[in-house]
Amino acid sequence: MQIDALRERIPYHGGLLAFFTLVTSLALLTANRITLPAIERAAQDDLKSSLEQVLPEGMTDNDLLAAAVEVDDNGVKRTVYRGTKAGAFSAAVFGFSGRGYAGEIKLLIGVDAGGTVTGVRVLKHAETPGLGDKIEVAKSDWIRSFEKKSLENTPVAAWAVKKDGGQFDQFAGATITPRGVVKAVKEGLQFFAAHREEIAGAAK
């Protein structure tokens, strides 16, 4: 009877709820600690794979992930992965974003020491399937059109889609998407040019 009476009291229910909440929290914390290292390793492996996609094989001989540096770009902190070959600065990879039809398009841009594009890949986007998703290398070779381009060999006016007087193709029914990517790559090259000495010096 005393137990039944105790169960009718509000503190009993509150204490029971608190107990199960504590047990659940401890279980989640333990699971998180167990799985976090594996998740972090997978994220690092994915990033390493992406970095390798935008740089030609043999261009660097160092660990890009270990050679990252934060560069201040007018108040925006950008992570730059610096590549070296035989100790000399040879390449850089960094992220840059553009605005597409459906939102932000996150890019990874690779350049050689002189600022020429070695590769561009889309990391994340929300563009329309069948139209804007042609920016993905798995759907189209369009993203490869930036390779070997630089601010030196491509005039500023040419950094636009053909509809706007530039030299890059647009997609039928989806001009906004490639327009945003072209603008982002151009601005990425301008960022590298403005901070090249800083990046190259940090890579030594």
UniProtKB/TrEMBL annotation:
Domain FMN-binding: 100-192
InterPro entries: FMN-bd (IPR007329), Ion_transpt_RnfG/RsxG (IPR010209)
Membrane topology classification: Single-pass membrane protein
Requisite cofactors: FMN
Swiss-Prot/TrEMBL keywords: Cell inner membrane, Cell membrane, Electron transport, Flavoprotein, FMN, Membrane, Phosphoprotein, Translocase, Transmembrane, Transmembrane helix, Transport
Record PTM FMN phosphoryl threonine, positions in chain: T175
Keyword Translocase: yes
Keyword Transmembrane helix: yes
Annotated compartments: Cell inner membrane
EC id: 7.-.-.-
Broad class of the protein's primary localization: membrane
Transmembrane domains' residue ranges: 12-31
Assembly and binders: The complex is composed of six subunits: RnfA, RnfB, RnfC, RnfD, RnfE and RnfG.
UniProt function note: Part of a membrane-bound complex that couples electron transfer with translocation of ions across the membrane.
Family membership: Belongs to the RnfG family.
Protein name in the entry: Ion-translocating oxidoreductase complex subunit G
Record gene name: rsxG
